[in-house]
Specification:
Blueprint: E1 2-12, E2 18-24, E3 28-33, E4 40-44, E5 46-52, E6 56-66, H1 73-76, E7 88-91, E8 98-109, E9 114-124, E10 129-130, E11 146-153, E12 178-185
Antiparallel strand pairs: 1-6, 2-5, 2-8, 3-4, 3-6, 7-8, 8-9, 10-11, 11-12
Amino acid sequence: MVYYTRGLTLCNDSAAVLGYRLTVLAPFSIVQLDRVTRHPTSQLNHIGRSVLQPRHSAAVIVAFCLSPDLLNYVHSLEFLEGLSPDGVELLRSEDGPQLQFRLPLNIEFDNSTIQSVPLKATIVMPSLRLATDTLDFGVCFIGQPRELPVILSNPTGSDSHWHCKQGTLLLLSAFLHLIRFTVVLLLC
């Protein structure tokens, strides 16, 4: 899992003590960071009642947790237009799909009023493309292998991890912009 964090400051400019609670939905969370590594040491989706003294401020760190499970949203959103009920939208562009998460950080005050701070995170999904739509092996004879060069590219800024389901396992964990490989057809 990878965490992306942003800080915000809650300010009490009044002369009265201000009581509040914070809530946020996954994949966002409220975190405390390790002072040395700057990695989250704890993450919560709900913080109990806190108090902000008059003319004081408090720092709040919000994290977006990027995990492989989030990629499952692509398949569940393929036929949905617009924002899903859980705040996720599949954006389609020439460069490939993107998942956009839009959820609020809610600040509930003791007087039952709620102030919402909009949170947004966008995941750029890898998009693998072949240089050609068809691989034409021409006339093939039994027992004689035919080879064709193939160019596979990833036009996005996202790392690509992929493998071939038949034949030799190919695994690329590095940043993929362009790779050339050969497909061998052997009729038996």
